[in-house]
Amino acid sequence: MPTLLKRLLVLPLLLTASLAYADPQRLQQLHEFRSEAFKAGTYLLIDNNLYERVREPGNREIYNSALQQMDSLLRQMNNPGNLRPLYSELVTLIRELEALPEDQAHYSLATVNRIMMAHGNLENAAAELYEAEVAGSPDNLVALQRQSIETSRILLLYENNMFSSVGVYFLPSREGLFVELDNRINDGSNQLKQLMPEHKDTFDRLDKQYSFIQPRLINHHADWVPTIAAFYLTKNTQTLDELAREQANLAEASVSTN
Q: Which residues of 164-178 are buried (b: 16+ CB within 10 A; e: fewer)?
């Protein structure tokens, strides 16, 4: 067989082989960047909502810690796509909000809306990069990451609904969105128990924590509990992200030995 023909036949095989192995660490970094962005948005909304009479300094500490982690992840990923300028815009708007005097709370809602719009732009861009990298990744890793994001979404949507003047920008807004996300979370839990039966006790615990706050999410116009909701659901996303990190490490080790 002529040498040129051999090369032409081998090239597609090499290309297929390279596509078959996703980068689990890169995917996990993109996921954790999104997860931290949701945490930042959640606690910024808690810090600025009008239902809490006393502003707890811990809320600002949490969202600033999330912003710092996002910056670190961007550096680790070498600033993919246009995430860096979108991140910088988000931070600039948050600093603008923090600089407002306490007695100008009625003006801050416009800035909060701009911040959530900036978060939506950032999340949509990060999600696009994530989807471009997800092909070929282990099912359990993707399922853990998806469950974490769905939990973050329903939490941020809940916190968002405390503000009549703040839009929903991190996913298309429509009727029945809480029920839709709730169904996805329940389906995701069942899928994880099938994919990772060795962690069933952990998933049962996450279900219990979610079910405690779930009625508040569905009936989101009654008796706001912003801090309690964030406490329980953020614990869930942290556990899911830790499990995903473990699976990413295992997947990377498996690829390196093959």
A: eebebbbbeeeeeeb
